[in-house]
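HUMAN:
Just now I want nothing more than another pair of eyes on a protein record. I would be glad if you read both lines and explained how they fit together. I have put the entry right below:
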Amino acid sequence: MSTPSPAPGGTTPVEFRSGFACLVGRPNAGKSTLTNALVGTKVAITSGRPQTTRHAIRGIVHRADAQLVLVDTPGLHRPRTLLGQRLNDVVRATLSEVDVVGFCMPADEPVGRGDRFIAEELSRLPKRTPVVAILTKTDKVADSDRIGARLLDVAGLGDFSDIVPVSAVRAYQVDVLADVLAARLPTGPALYPGGELTDEPEQVMVAELVREAALEGVRDELPHSLAVVVEEMVPREGRSAQSPLLDVRVNVFVERPSQKAIVIGTGGSRLKTVGTRARGQIEALLGTPVFLDLHVKVAKDWQRDPRQLRRLGF
């Protein structure tokens, strides 16, 4: 590689860096919220329910000195279903392809078996792949001594290149974390055009927004059992350019009739709320008015059925 030309005044410019960073952690460790905070806008769904991420969503951080492409993966965990195994496969495949790994652990919970399981997985990575430990959700811990104790616990889990405490909600040290991750990328040109924030297809983003809305405020039994497929996104015929309308037809799949009743609610009240919430997010994403047509269907035990998993995109 040629040496950069000196900048005016005799200083040598910093070489531009670009590459991929993967955020891993057990379910509900704050990875999606942190991805959104780093990117500066919503590219990954967030939920208080664990295991809501189903795809390796890329968020793109544009900086003057680097382009950091974030890969937000499902939570790595000991699987109990075929879906769980396939989600873990997504994580492992992603780990093998990135330049730096961020290992997320929440500050408001003690180090547990899930964290040790992931630390063991990460210890098998090639030495050339740096791992940065990230203590997330520090806003949930008021006592600084507890934060210090958690940082010591995290340090004992592995040989990390850095340990960074952050709060995505309060933007605490998010910029510091971006600096740490970017410094570990290889030198090279930008991988995506300026202004692009994600490379996820619009249909995938729409499906994720519907699933996020459907997960809001439901009982624990539902999140793992809910899948969303966008069947159609087409402009409404006969509408002028000044008054466009996009027809979006979406199927929400659950595993049992009782779960279908939860999603729909009494007299369809809950499904209406889901539609209203999701439509607002979709219109903000696409920049156009949307008619959202939601249907709830039962796909019995789809998490354990290879044929149905393929049909639902897993």
Summary: The two ends are 41 Å apart (CA to CA). The beta strands are 17-24, 57-62, 66-72, 100-106, 131-136, 162-165, 227-235, 246-254, 290-298. DSSP finds nine helices and nine strands in the chain. Residues 269-286 form the longest helix (18 residues).
